[in-house]
Amino acid sequence: MKQHFIGNQWVAPSSGDAIPVIDPSDGQPFESLARGNASDIDQAVGAARAAYEGAWGRLSAAERGRLLQKLAQKMLDHAEELAQLEARDCGKPLRQARADAAAVARYFEFYAGAADKLHGETIPYQNGYTVLTIREPHGVTGHIIPWNYPLQIFGRSVGAALAAGNACVVKPAEDACLSLLRVAELAAQVGFPEGALNIVTGYGQEAGDALVRHPGIDHVSFTGSPAIGKLVACAAAENHTPVTLELGGKSPQIVFADADFEAMLPVVVNAIVQNAGQTCSAGSRLLVERSAYEEVVARLSVAFGKLRVGPASMDLDCGPLIRQTQLQRVVGFLEEVRRDGLPITSQGQVVAEAPKTGFYQAPTLVRDVPPGHRLAQEEVFGPVIAAMPFDDEAHALRLANGTAYGLVASVWSRDGSRQMRLARKLRCGQVFINNYGAGGGIELPFGGVKASGHGREKGFEALYGFTVLKTISIKHD
Ligand code: NAD
């Protein structure tokens, strides 16, 4: 059994219980994790507090940056090992897992460089006063991480929190987190003081809930579903603990007839197929100007028909979904699509070599989806794209903004004025013009509005969220 990592040591769960780790490619258990509870969380928070008030808290910003840089290099040295772990654990095609391993190192590199550049300001005030602001760490931060991109989400959340000077307690997802346990071990090897970075594995309603409610936690960063995000925000409110919420999305790609289709098509395919559509910023809605709708749908159908799905180790276009219940969820959406008579235009293929016990879903293109249909409104978190036509810019905007979510959006058009008009009116946290980042871009602030959450991670902006601003007013002659 993989144990918790607390105070730079492997620690057995106080319950003695384990959680099986299932390989999504064949549906078989291949490892087990410690089933953490409130007592384990308490131990980890205690270790983090001691680090914050001790060796970790005494480091200068430059020294913290140097440690983060060492960890970034160590992760690069172990990139293939981390990628192999992530691929098996999450069912990601190896290419994607390798990109994630490179990304987590890059997050640490970015925040290593930023650690000593996070400064306050002086404020002009009345004569006889000097007023300044300083940015201080929250103290001990809690991080709840989902299973879809363990390495990347750890990088953007924990990397920034450590750079800002916090000591961290991480509760990763019960479905996939082996790579993070290895990263914590690497952090200890490069010299992170005991307790600066702690990982307690376990179920959300046990270890996760205990972390959010712990009075020793000074800030919570949660990435996951809107439903659990709401629970987390309510639980954190009991102690007035500030929360950053990175939740789901139903992100639109808006394609005008004047767009460069050659450039657009592969990006649109990738934005829904990457990670088998289990990406918060997946491009799951395709809005196309009516005059180009038939052509775009026809060309996209051809591309979808060529997609191949199989085990992570085969490194095809698409891997399995994370677990059986996720597969059932996606299948449920497609049953509704068939029942309601919506045309499934094209599907990829699950290869014959894929084990029958794995959790495979062929990428699926559904056209003419009414804007109010569940497929056009709710997050599927699978490789299913909903296409629909629009008549003009105003109609496109109404459709794009017409869900509960607001994470990212893209505009595909050669018209510069239209690009900016839409960019300003789209209600979301990121707008891509003639590209689609699918959440990519370590340097780019990321986060949502509405049901997609609040607060920003990634980029320099994330550092502000992991600090508290203090104003100091000095009266003098
Ligand atoms: P989830 O909300 O079920 O779980 C996320 C994490 O929360 C897991 O670690 C889980 O153990 C924990 N958790 C569950 N119940 C909890 C509780 N009561 N208290 C505290 N923690 C609890 O989500 P999921 O199924 O793991 O992930 C999929 C969802 O996450 C999708 O909606 C997706 O869009 C979203 N997501 C968002 C982003 C983003 O940056 N916006 C990134 C990745 C995933």
UniProtKB/TrEMBL annotation:
Enzyme kind, highest EC tier: oxidoreductase
Entry keywords, A to Z: Oxidoreductase
EC number from the UniProt entry: 1.2.1.3
Gene3D superfamilies: Aldehyde Dehydrogenase, Chain A, domain 1, Aldehyde Dehydrogenase, Chain A, domain 2
PROSITE patterns from the UniProt entry: ALDEHYDE_DEHYDR_CYS (PS00070), ALDEHYDE_DEHYDR_GLU (PS00687)
Domain Aldehyde dehydrogenase: 10-472
Listed CDD domains: ALDH_AAS00426
Protein's UniProt keywords contain Flavoprotein: no
Keyword Oxidoreductase on entry: yes
Molecular-function GO term, any one: aldehyde dehydrogenase (NAD+) activity
Similarity field: Belongs to the aldehyde dehydrogenase family.
Name under which the protein is recorded: Aldehyde dehydrogenase (ALDDH)
Protein encoded by which gene: aldA
